[in-house]
Specification:
The protein has 281 residues and is mostly helical. The protein contains 14 helices and eight strands.
Length: 281
């Protein structure tokens, strides 16, 4: 996702300096006009707006907070925008570390959609900071939804991902059960098109049926987001039974070696969850 965002910013005419936690991954972007930084301070020192795209809370805190992190090198007039999906508390901690010059802006959509300038951003932060960041964010997004103060964007993103992940777990169970019971292909197609399967999962239907689960949103990241959604609810005194059931399936998938595959691999966890030998009266 970070690569897709950087590519769109370069294509939109912005001067982009790149830094990755894993060296050597910026090759194609350098050919397009990006400049590779040697370190976080090198990447941040001249930037008016710094954008981070990282896997989890630990990565965001490590990159953004500390003596060699973004917080120590950000210009006094610069703004930090984090597009990662993390806990609201992490966003607030980063905002505090950079003196409030922060916007949380998690992305709804795939990297291909970012390249096509079609993703939605769920934005949290001070309106003045969001206004300032908006022309840059518009380079890779079709819509920016203002959700409230810092942490509000990631809160809504966790709720959105909870919906996606719980739904794909339910659809995976339907697919696995239908196949195990010999439901004909045309009837499976009827189920897909019945209106009961969410539109945003139809692009994963064939993969659930018989795919190799190659994609961009991994089982490991899906489970991370389910855990964050469960914690978010727990902080408000709620225990989410459906999210916990989905989390159990994702955990089984990760433990079975599917952690780096797309979330459609949750169907393999369903298929592996066998009861006793079937009874046929």
């Amino acid at each position: 996702m970070g690569g897709a965002v950087a590519q769109r910013l370069i294509e939109a005419g912005h001067e982009v300096r790149l830094w990755n936690r894993t060296p050597g991954r910026a090759g194609a972007l350098l050919e397009r006009g990006g400049v590779e930084a040697r370190s976080i301070p090198d990447a941040v020192r001249d930037a008016a707006i710094v954008i981070t795209s990282l896997a989890d809370d630990a990565a965001v805190r490590a990159v953004c907070i500390g003596p060699n992190a973004v917080s120590a090198s950000l210009r006094d007039d610069a703004l930090l925008v984090d597009t990662s999906t993390v806990a609201p508390a992490t966003s607030r901690a980063v905002a505090s570390a950079v003196g409030g010059r922060f916007v949380d802006s998690p992305i709804v959509g795939a990297p291909a959609a970012a390249l096509a300038q079609q993703v939605t951003l769920l934005v949290g932060g001070d309106d003045a900071h969001i206004d300032r960041a908006d022309p840059v964010l518009a380079a890779f997004s079709a819509r920016r939804v203002r959700c409230g103060p810092v942490g509000a964007g990631v809160t809504v993103k966790l709720l959105a991902n909870e919906l996606l992940l719980a739904q794909i777990a339910a659809v995976a169970e339907v697919v696995a059960s239908a196949q195990a019971n010999g439901v004909r292909e045309e009837l499976l197609a009827w189920l897909r098109d019945s209106g009961l399967v969410p539109n945003n999962l139809k692009n994963r239907w064939d993969d659930l049926l018989a795919g190799d689960h190659q994609g961009w949103f991994s089982m490991r990241l899906g489970r991370k987001d389910l855990g964050l959604a469960i914690d978010l609810a727990a902080d408000a005194g709620l225990d989410l039974a459906v999210a916990r059931a989905a989390d159990e399936l994702f955990a089984r998938g990760v433990e079975a070696g599917f952690g780096d595959l797309d979330i459609g691999a949750v169907v393999e966890a369903v298929r592996a969850r066998r009861t006793a030998a079937p009874v046929h009266p």
